[in-house]
Design brief:
three-stranded parallel sheet, Arc Repressor Mutant, subunit A
Length: about 280
């Protein structure tokens, strides 16, 4: 079977051919042509067009063509769902969909810049997606850094507030427990917007209600508090430098860490660390 799309592929138009060949049509022939030639050539070659407006295989709402292939061909595979979130984030410039999205976009932007032959880029891209699928299938639960700050923060939230909540807690707190557990399982970051989307709750409402169940703090303030608590624990129990601790607790740099630490505790981390050593 022949499949045809626009020339100069980068993300979705590399991901879709990989998906076609690996899960839909192993003998597929992929054809790249100029935008205005896709439909005429598809009719001439009896090829199925994809990833352009006003055809079946295209973007819908905030989902990309890769998502539609999965839905259309009923591909039930958790690994493909993980890859779909990454591809969607990279292709639509929504890196909040998956933390790996920014990396995927950077890789294929660089490859597309260096490789002008669409078919050469496709073959290399298929190898890259093979590796991404292996990660999504077998390795996504492995952590590159043990005890990562995001994992520890979410685990503290889970154990302290959601594991044994009373029956009077709102229904969304139970769903939030499941979302957090999923984040732990897949090593993804968690934002208020992401929680709001998954719970289907207005983010303004969730932001307001969150404080009632989490130390009267906003979502952002609570996460920062957990980071500072983690930093204090590291200063109490390890010999890490302040720069290393800032990195391990998710701050952009030591100055940012120092500013937030002082705001939360009333003293500089260097002073706290010296006292901890004594």
């Amino acid at each position: 079977m022949k499949w045809i799309t626009r020339e100069h592929p980068k993300i979705d138009r590399i991901a879709c051919p990989w998906l076609i060949r690996r899960f839909i049509d192993p003998e597929a022939e992929i054809i790249f042509v100029p935008f205005d030639r896709v439909i005429p050539m598809s009719e001439e070659l009896k090829a199925i067009p994809f990833d352009l407006p006003d055809i079946e295989y295209t973007h819908y709402d905030n989902q990309c063509t890769f998502d539609y292939f999965i839905k259309k061909h009923q591909l039930k595979d958790a690994a493909l769902d993980r890859i779909a979130a990454i591809v969607r984030g990279a292709d639509t410039d929504r890196h909040d969909f998956a933390p790996q999205a920014a990396g995927l976009e950077a890789i294929f932007s660089g490859l597309a810049y260096n490789i002008k032959d669409d078919y050469q880029l496709l073959e290399l891209g298929i190898t890259i997606y093979d590796g991404l699928y292996s990660w999504a299938k077998h390795l996504h639960q492995l952590k590159h850094t043990q005890g990562s700050p995001v994992e520890q923060m979410l685990l503290e939230v889970y154990n302290k507030y959601l594991k044994d909540r009373s029956k009077k807690a709102p229904a969304w707190t139970k769903e939030l427990k499941e979302i957090i557990q999923d984040q732990l399982d897949t090593n993804l970051t968690l934002s208020l917007q992401q929680v709001s989307d998954e719970l289907e709750i207005n983010p303004a409402y969730l932001s307001r209600e969150f404080s009632k169940y989490f130390d009267n703090l906003s979502f952002g303030d609570y996460i920062r508090k957990l980071r500072i608590d983690k930093a204090k624990n590291l200063m109490d129990t390890t010999a890490y430098s302040l720069t290393e601790i800032a990195y391990l607790t998710g701050f952009s740099d030591q100055s940012h860490f120092t500013r937030i630490f002082k705001k939360q505790t009333g003293q500089n981390p260097s002073v706290y660390k010296k006292a901890a050593k004594k």
